[in-house]
Each structure stands twice: as structure tokens, then as C-alpha cells.
Known about the structure:
By secondary structure, the chain is mainly α. It is built from 20 helices and six strands.
Amino acid sequence: MTRKSSMTPSRKSIPAASRKKAKPAQTSTIPSSGSKGKVSAMWAGRFSGGMSPAMEKLSVSLHFDKKLYREDIEGSVAHAHGLFAAKVLTASERDRMIAALKGIQADIAAGKALFSPSDEDIHMAVERILTDRIGGLGKKLHTGRSRNDQVATDFRLYVMRRAEALVGRVEDLQRALLEKAKQYKKDIMPGYTHVQQAQPILIAHYLLSFFFALERDKSRLRHAWWSAGEMPLGSGALAGSAFPYKREMVAERLGFPAVSRNSIDATAHRDFALEFLGSLGCLGVLLSSYAEDFVIWSTSEFGYVKLGEAYTSGSSMMPQKRNPDSMELIRGKAGRLMGAYARLFTVLKGLPHGYDRDLQEDKEPVFDAVETASVCLQVMAEAIESLTFDTKKILTRMQPALLATDLADILVEKGVPFRDAHHIVGRLVGEAEKKGVSFLELPAESWKAVPDAAAVKKLLTFAFSVERRNIQGGTGSKSVTAQLKEAEKMLKRVG
Ligand code: ARG
């Protein structure tokens, strides 16, 4: 295709009406496409009147999608390269267009007020500003492109970048957990099930449970990165661009690992965003449950942990209060993250193919979730750094019954079948409860079902219980040291 022939249809396709309208836009607003509304549409050619003001309000998205300005402009720069390769632009046109686009990006970054109330969304705003600045050449930018493949490209780039940044934030939290785990690698606490004391564990073991769970959050985020990583440009509105566009080259410039395989798939689907929100929902739920532990453990009833002052607040009425607000807020924000996921899921259900305007609703939940997850991760990391365990007090709260399983295990080693051992120990613990003493304090008479009872009683300490569990993944000190090493290695591994 010669340059001339490829340019001709694009020029023809620009309606005279909108060409005329773009001109006076050096003033702060573009004249309305009709008598009613303010918003000028690039598609105004086929319309005789504008939108109603209420409809405009419903339609406008610039106030939130301006967040995508960087991705939009970078997408347009890459598209200009694509148009040059397709012989739609000359080299000097491409260079002028790119210089202007970069100028717009710098001006927006510098906080210059470039947007006008007539701009419907970020895509139209950038194109309008470009045309204001470089005249007719700006009108060539949209050749072979639709806002459908443009917005999908911008949004995918955004999701990829945020997913990567959030992986970094998760790693900051993991580093804080690893340091804290090292600090408490010898200290014992009660491990809980059903918020009931269950078995003794090392504090480091508990902290590392958080670390390793976060590793899966990272892999979910990375998977969302890959799902987002298929570049839509070249897909046009739904059927593919009619210009000989070098999609791979454009994708490479933008940092996409792949190009989309089908133009309808590329423009109509937002499952990558859903996956990203799903991963943030999972992350939120994880953070909320550790936050809950810290809330409970910082009560005066427990008194196991203290959060740094900067992560708590006082009460305006009760002078003695030091509330674990950081953890409560993180716990609460999980609802918001899950809500974002449910919100997009609901928008997407049953949408017909290809692009539908409903899809404009995809961005706000994602923007909100990104900010929420990011600040929650940051505060959780800082709060963990500030966290101290009152190891002495914790020991005083540990009930001897935490050793009941160990006694049953010892009986098994002496040849008693486990169910019988469980029954014997259960009886001991039940009797102790009735008498209001520890099962270790019961008279020899009560222990007669246990062979070598005196020696066995001596064995039964919390440290003994922990050290019996050096199985891989267990709470024994050797196992925890191995976990610490593995955690360290994971943080050093790239990608
Ligand atoms: N603001 C729109 C969105 O966010 C851009 C795409 C509009 N496309 C269209 N055909 N009206 O989805």
C-alpha cells in the first residue's frame, strides 16, 4: 500500500463537521457537537444534535480515566510508530506527532490544566489537545485505531504496571515479616485453632505462615500480568485494522509480551482485570485475617503484641485507649477489595460481543483496588516492623493442655493405639478441668494408664513439643531455620 492510498481513506473518513469543530479549540473548550450538551464528540459528523446534559453526565469518564494519561500517550506514541511502518505517516510527521505527544505527557505530569469540559474521556482529550497543538496532523493519529482497542491497550498496560508495582509492595511486606521472624525464631507462643489454644509453636513459624501465603499472592498478581499482556492495538473497533500495521513491533515498544490473537477477544474482554481484582481480593482477605490476629492479640485480655504507636490511635474520650486502628482499617479495606471484584464481575456478566459501553465501568473498581491494596500493604509492612511480642507474658498465658497431643503421641510410641491414647489423655484433661488444675498436677492415681508416668511428665515441656516437630514445614527450630532460609532465597529470586 502506498502512502497516498493508505492516507486517502482516513482523510475521507473524518467528517467535515468535526474537522471544522476542532479548529477553535485553542480556546479552552471545543464547541459543542450540537446545541444541547457541552461535550464535543470526535464522532459528531453523523449527528445533528448533542447529548442531553444528563446523558453527558452519564457518559463522561475523564474525571477518572485521566489516570490512564501516561498509558494512553505511550500507546499513541507506539501507534504513531505503527502508522509510520504502515506508511500512513511520513518519518517527519511521526516525529512531530511523537514530540507533541511527549510534550502533552510532560504538561499533564506537571499539573498543567489542559483538559476541557468538552473532553469526554482521556483518549478524546489527548487527541483534541494534540490537534490543537499540531493542527491537521493530529487528526491522523486515530487511523486504523478505535477507542475500543485503544482503551483496552491503555487499561492492560495499566494493570500490568500496577500488578508489577504491587508485587514489589508484597515483597516489602515479606521482608518485614522475614526480619521479624528472625527476631523471634526461638520464642514460643500458643498456636490457635478456633481461637482456642491448640499446640505450642514458634513465633517465627507463625510469622512465616504469612510470608509463604504472600508468595502465592505474588504468583496470582504475576498471572494477572501475563493475562493482561496481550496487546490489542491493531484490533480496531472489533474486526482488525485495515492498515498494514506491525503489531509485534508496537507491542514490543510498549512492553507487551504478546499481541492478542483475535480482535473481538481483544476489544470485548476484561477477564484480565477481573483476575487482577480477584488477586487483590485474595490479598485483602489474607491481610484482614492477620490484622484480626493482631487486633485480638493487642487486647489487654491477651497482651501478646504491641503495635508501634504510629499504627494505633487514642480515643477522644477515654484517655487509656490505644486502639489498633491500622489493623482494623486493613481488616475493613478487605471488604472494599472484595467489593471491587464483585462489582466488575457483575458488570461483565452476560455482555454481548464485541465492545459495549458498559465496559467503561471496568476502570474505577480497579483504580480503587490498586490504591487500597497498595496502602494496606505499606501500612502492614510498617506495622509488622513496629510489632513487638511480649514473650514473657505469652509464656505465662500458655496452658499445659497445649501438651495433650504430645502426651498422646508419647503413648503411641509406647505401643498404645492412637485412638486409645487420645481417650486416655482426654480423660486426664477432662478430670483436670473439673478439678480446676493442670492435667500435669493430677495425682499419680489418675496417671496410672500412662506407663513411666513420672518420666513422661518431666518430658512434657513446650520446648519439647516444638522440637518434636522438625518435619519439613513443622514448627521445630530446625524446620523453622530451613523455612527462614527458603524465604530468604525466595526474596532474592528475581521474577
Ligand atoms: N471511555 C470508553 C471506555 O472507557 C472508551 C471507549 C469508547 N468506545 C466507544 N465505542 N464508545 O470504555
